[in-house]
Amino acid sequence: MKRITKGISNFLNTRLGFVILAVFLYTLKTIYAYETKFNLGVKGSIQTFLMIINPIPVMLLLFGISLYMKGRKSYIFLLIVDFLDTVWLFSNILYYREFSDFLTMVLIKGSGSVSNNLGKSIMGILKPTDFLVFTDVIILILLLAFHVIKVDIRRLNWRIPVLVSSLAVLLFGANLTLAESDRSQLLTRTFDNNYIVKYLGLNVFNVYDMIKTTKTNAVKSQAKSSDIDSIEKYMKNNYAQPNVEYTGVAKGKNVFIIHL
Q1: CA 36, 92, 97 angle in degrees (round to 5)?
Q2: Separation CA 58–CA 134 (nearest Å)
Q3: What are the phi and psi torsion angles at 255 (to 5°)?
Q4: Where on the tree of life does the source sit, at the highest rank (predicted)?
Q5: In this structure, how many other beta carbons lie within 10 angstroms of the beta carbon of residue 166?
Q6: 140: closest CA among 92, 91, 81, 57?
Q7: Each residue of 163-219: pLDDT tens digit?
Q8: How are the residues of the chain apportioned to helix, strand and coil, as percentages rounded to the nearest 5?
Q9: I want to staple 201 with a disulfide (CB 3.0 to 4.6 A). Which of 6, 54, 221, 245 is the partner?
């Protein structure tokens, strides 16, 4: 038993071991957030399995970048990435609680309206347990500060970071393949952001959203004023007369629209 404990301790005192520990703690934190802070609608063993593993590929790739660095820079970079990603997760927790959706590029660009909507009720929606998502960052800092885990300044074989990055890409490919097998056209037939998050993870959703926003902006930038002519022509040719039975029935009344 002592030999096993010593072996684990020796491994954690390497840069690779620290990366693996960081990925493990981040995964636990993400699972906690998925289960208690979001309503992803996870059903069945496959979706549960994917929800558990989907943080691993991206964080292994991001944290693995630190392995390309030397000495203390490696640890500092990892902690900064972990902290920033946790802040993003924390922000999504608050936004989701208020609006039942995740933060997107469109919302960030209109950050003024978002901050107004969220800022007015921030104290009302904030819960003490929300700060638990920072636990892994604190644990890693304390382990280093109290020298439970010592900074490894030894030169790392270049094959190790390359192998870690390759493994991360391979795991993501497996994750995506399994997700597509459970829900075909996952990335092309999206009407609910919860699907991408529960199948591929919050970080992948962020990348997906950025790509989608970029494509949309590219289409808008190429649009011409003459494009509206075909739309107006279609509307004119397919005009439907209003139903006289219902026209004006809500005039002067309050109307509640329920969107499912």
Answers
A1: 55
A2: 18
A3: -115, 125
A4: Bacteria
A5: 13
A6: 81
A7: 999 999 999 999 999 999 999 888 887 778 999 999 999 999 999 999 998 888 887
A8: 70, 0, 30
A9: 54
